[in-house]
Write a sequence for this structure.
């Protein structure tokens, strides 16, 4: 694999981790949201990643990257609370809380941030190696 291909792989991984960080931030921002129905309450979002292999693999050069296939809503049930005095309470007196788990989201945010940092380091190291290779010809 060429050092130039590392830029593509690391760049796609950084893009994917950026989407992961954005969905985590959105989840944390809406963690305390409530609604009068389970259907309308905010549901946690999670990106779905896929490995991508380029056509170069057919020539015996394994290269690839990461692709975001989409963002899905969590199917975990919303927490139900009996609070008939709440302005959003339904006719039975219940409100529904988001299914976001803040501690799990914080752990996911830390993992995504570290992965992003690792890919930045890969890009920087590759750049230094390419510059040193160019300096060999002087």
């Amino acid at each position: 694999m060429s050092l130039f291909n590392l830029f593509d792989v690391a760049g796609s991984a950084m893009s994917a981790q950026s989407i992961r960080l954005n969905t985590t931030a959105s989840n944390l921002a809406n963690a305390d949201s409530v609604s009068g129905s389970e259907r309308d309450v905010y549901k946690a979002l999670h990106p779905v990643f896929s490995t991508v292999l380029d056509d170069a693999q057919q020539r015996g050069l394994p290269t690839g990257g990461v692709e975001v296939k989409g963002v899905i809503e969590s199917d975990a049930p919303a927490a139900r609370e009996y609070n008939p005095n709440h302005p959003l309470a339904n006719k039975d007196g219940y409100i529904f809380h988001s299914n976001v788990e803040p501690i799990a989201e914080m752990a996911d945010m830390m993992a995504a941030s570290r992965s992003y940092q690792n890919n930045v380091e890969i890009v920087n190291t590759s750049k230094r190696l390419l510059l040193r290779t160019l300096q060999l010809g002087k």
